Amino acid sequence: MTEQAAPTPQPARLTVLSGPSGVGKGTVVAEVRRLFPHVWVSISCTTRRPRPGEADGVQYHFLSDAEFDDLIASDRLLEYASFAGHRYGTPRKPVEQHLAAGRPTLLEIELQGARQIRQRMPEARFVFLAPPSVRELRDRLVGRGTEATEVVEARLAQAEVELEAHDEFDVVVVNDDVERAAAEVVSLISVVDA
């Protein structure tokens, strides 16, 4: 009897979920994880301070400016961007490892980062999460109660720009119902094109 070599895992698809601040990306991603536990969700790095209830290595890797600079200088980020006075980025190595192992991988990132990933990995599927309306988006941002008025206004101004970019994405999912939106994202992650 001859031994057969273990099959080599097929590379999995990278799915990039983006949308304006306050649209509910984190809430939708949490529901995606519940519905499709096989998906691996990248944890971004940021230079911002943790919000109440956030823990290092869970929501983000919280870094100093110097640590973030080191990641950029050593090309260890797939993408990075500045947003609301802080920097955010996606560590390269874990994403590449999970994709090579055949595990569907999801990035939850802002528009600047999604554009960089489009340049580096055009085979990824790009999903734009949109609010039901700009008014609803404003209500969500204000309702958080975690940021000063000027930060909320800056996020809303940026959201207007990001909403205009929805046509740069492969699919637009409206977050009018978290469970429905998450199920739609799961269907996009789990179905491989023929």
Automatic annotation (TrEMBL):
Reaction(s) catalysed by this chain's protein: GMP + ATP = GDP + ADP
Q: Transferase among the record's keywords?
A: yes
| UniProt-annotated location(s) | Cytoplasm
Main localization of the protein described in the UniProt heading? cytoplasm
Domain Guanylate kinase-like per the UniProt entry, residue ranges: 12-190
Gene3D superfamilies linked to this entry:
Guanylate Kinase phosphate binding domain, P-loop containing nucleotide triphosphate hydrolases
Q: Which domain of life is it from?
A: Bacteria
Q: Which SUPFAM superfamilies match?
A: P-loop containing nucleoside triphosphate hydrolases
Q: Name one GO molecular function term.
A: GMP kinase activity
Annotated residues that bind ATP are located at G19, P20, S21, G22, V23, G24, K25, G26
Q: Read off the SMART domains from this record.
A: GuKc (SM00072)
Pfam families membership: Guanylate_kin
Question: Could you tell me the keywords of this UniProt record?
Answer: ATP-binding, Cytoplasm, Kinase, Nucleotide-binding, Transferase
Main enzyme class: transferase
Q: What is its EC number?
A: 2.7.4.8
Please report which protein family the annotation says this sequence is part of: Belongs to the guanylate kinase family.
Q: Which PANTHER family match?
A: GUANYLATE KINASE, GUANYLATE KINASE-RELATED
Q: What does this protein do?
A: Essential for recycling GMP and indirectly, cGMP.
Sorted alphabetically, which HAMAP family does this protein's record hold? Guanylate_kinase
Name this polypeptide is given: Guanylate kinase
What organism, scientifically named, is this protein from?
Answer: Jatrophihabitans lederbergiae
